[in-house]
Design a protein that fits this description.
The complex is a heterodimer of chains A (about 475) and B (about 110). Chain A has about 475 residues and is an alpha/beta fold. Chain A has 16 helices and seven strands. The model of chain B is unreliable at about 95-113 (pLDDT under 50). Classes of the chains: A alpha/beta (about 475), B mainly alpha (about 110).
């Protein structure tokens, strides 16, 4: 190790410390923003050290640097403009897009490194194995994330897309990718073989995500986040860059944890989600009310307004329906009206509310809801016991008390104990079942009133009604 | 060669463990910004783009450098900017008129958001 390489290594170590400290600061909303800036500082150190080292030792043609500069200006420009303009409801697509490009970059790096080596003598497995792994994971992450982003954006239908023979085709594609990968490692290396690995992996990424329903998006985005992290770590192995190995491993861990947590919160195993085809995705609300309506008590916006105006503790349970009708500002307005009149208002947020892990919190934060009002599942459940009115807006399965009993589709799923509230109001378009496809027993409880309407309109009506009772 | 590989493997495995430890303490409230922030961190792949730029001397090398740089910079710049935008919105309550607050809270016209 030359002294120069040693100094660069020290800078990489410093960058890694910044990354870890930055992530660590994200454990409270108060310090999270600083954490992100610390992590950005680590990035500047890592990139700066790499740049100085590369320029000093480079013997490349200026064209290489021109290509780099052109890519940085165009890509960086796109990234900054898009991040500044993106709507908060569209964050999951953007995150998925960044997963895609991160994975794509990692695959491109492995490919370029492979081409620049003298392969006539054959490669040692210490090089060829990470190259192949990087190309496989990076390409799957690239195409899979693009399809996921397309589904989230609505460019590609959210419903699971399946066709006859899809499973067989899947297996064939995987075998081709692995076979060509093994050949690249075992046989005298040749780039056409690596190209086969790349193409088969891109195809596999597409086939993997197409059959997954839109409602499973939180899990898929998390999983692909883990993939991208691993691809970047593999790229670090290929070019012997410790900053990339460390950062990639951190992201791989983050994605893995979120994937497992999301799958648990949805009461599904990662495997069944990846096998796809089970979910109904965005179509869940389409089926008209077919379930039992016998014991359901219907209420008007005015009834709800009256109830809320005379409550002391109110808990709002926002779900996907709220995000879908973009009613986060209306719900925040109602909550603010209530808090201004001395009523205690909290939000109980299930981990999978929204379209990616924690998405609902961002939507509420955008509507100026302070994070001190946002309760996680564990904090929210004891609070329902002393709650006068629980207002459920667009959430369904995550409130179904049937989850506490064995033997049904939601059994064992972590739920919000909305039924413990003295009185419950559910704002919903119809009685249609949620994603799990079973009727929600909460709806037929004696203390529950149903307000059948679009979330945005209903919340506006309720706010008007509350104003009548509280302003005088 | 194998020595480098071994130390890199050790770094990889230990970083995974640190990652599990740090990330599992992050509350679900912050999962979206955290994932977005982790996304920005894998933008470090731009260091790889720099490394292949320094070694590029064929047309294929230039093209791959361009692609890697394009992708990686969109990732790293966009990732940090959007994460910061989200986290800026997370604010604590501005003097919440809770139940313990005295009656005038009800009379005060609401502060405009």
């Amino acid at each position: 190790m030359t002294p120069f390489a040693f100094i660069v290594g020290v800078f990489y170590l410093a960058a890694a410390v910044f990354f870890v400290v930055g992530l660590h600061q994200m454990r409270t909303p108060r310090t999270a923003r600083r954490g992100n800036l610390i992590s950005a500082g680590g990035m500047i150190i890592a990139v700066g050290a790499t740049l100085v080292y590369a320029i000093a030792l480079s013997n490349s043609h200026p064209l290489g640097w021109i290509a780099l500069a052109a890519g940085v200006i165009l890509g960086g420009g796109f990234g900054i403009v898009r991040s500044r303009s993106v709507k908060m409801t569209d964050i999951p697509q953007l995150v998925s897009l960044f997963n895609a490009v991160g994975g794509g970059a990692a695959a491109a790096i492995a490919f370029a490194d492979f081409l620049s080596r003298d392969v006539s003598a054959g490669l040692t497995p210490t090089t060829s194995v990470p190259v192949v792994l990087d190309v496989i994971i990076g390409s799957v992450s690239l195409s899979g994330s693009l399809i996921a982003a397309g589904k989230l954006q609505g460019v590609i239908p959210g419903q699971p897309i399946q066709f006859p023979g899809a499973r067989v085709l899947n297996v064939v594609v995987v075998l081709i990718a692995l076979g060509a990968g093994a050949a690249t490692i075992l046989l005298p290396a040749s780039w056409p073989l690596l190209l086969v690995v790349l193409i088969a992996s891109v195809l596999f990424g597409v086939l993997m995500v197409l059959p997954i329903g839109g409602a499973d998006a939180p899990v898929v985005v998390s999983l692909l986040n883990a993939f991208t992290g691993l691809a970047v770590a593999m790229a670090g192995f290929v070019i012997d860059n410790q900053a990339m190995i460390i950062a990639g491993a951190l992201v791989g861990a983050a994605g893995t944890i979120l994937t497992l947590q999301m799958a648990k919160a949805m009461n599904r195993s990662v495997l069944t989600i990846m096998l796809g085809g089970f979910g109904t995705g965005d179509g869940a609300e389409v089926t008209p009310g077919t379930s039992t309506t016998a014991n359901v008590r219907e209420v008007t916006a005015d009834d709800v307004g009256l109830q809320l105006a005379y409550a002391r503790h109110v808990i709002i349970v926002p779900g996907y329906g709220l995000a879908a009708s973009q009613a986060q500002h209306e719900v925040a307005e109602l909550a603010k009206l209530l808090t201004d009149h001395g009523i205690d208002v909290k939000y109980a947020i299930h981990p999978v509310a929204g379209r990616m892990p924690g998405h609902m919190n961002v939507l509420l934060a955008e509507a100026n809801v302070p994070y001190t009002q946002m309760l996680q599942l564990e904090e929210a459940n004891p609070a329902f016991d002393t709650c006068d009115v629980a207002l459920v807006v667009g959430a369904n399965d995550v409130t179904n008390p049937a989850a506490r009993r064995p033997g049904n589709a939601v059994s064992g799923m972590p739920i919000l104990d909305v039924d413990h509230a003295k009185s419950v109001v559910v704002v919903k378009r119809s009685m249609s079942p949620g994603y799990a496809g079973i009727p929600n027993e909460l709806f037929s409880l004696p203390q529950t009133g149903m307000l059948f309407d679009d979330a945005k309109k209903a919340l506006g009506d309720i706010t008007l009604s509350v104003k009548q009772y509280v302003t005088t | 060669m194998t020595e480098t590989l071994f130390s890199n493997l050790a770094i990889f495995v230990l970083s995974l463990l640190v990652g599990f430890e740090v990330i599992s303490k992050i509350p679900s409230t912050l999962h979206t910004p955290m994932m977005s922030g982790a996304n920005a961190i894998h933008g470090v792949v731009i260091a790889g783009a720099i490394a292949i730029a320094a070694a590029a001397n064929t047309p294929a090398g230039y093209i791959l450098t361009f692609i890697a740089a394009l992708f990686a910079s969109a990732n790293v710049f966009g990732g940090y900017v959007v994460t910061d935008r989200m986290l800026r919105m997370f604010t604590p309550a501005a003097a919440p008129p809770s139940l313990t607050a005295s009656v005038p809270a009800a009379i005060k016209p609401g502060k405009s958001s």
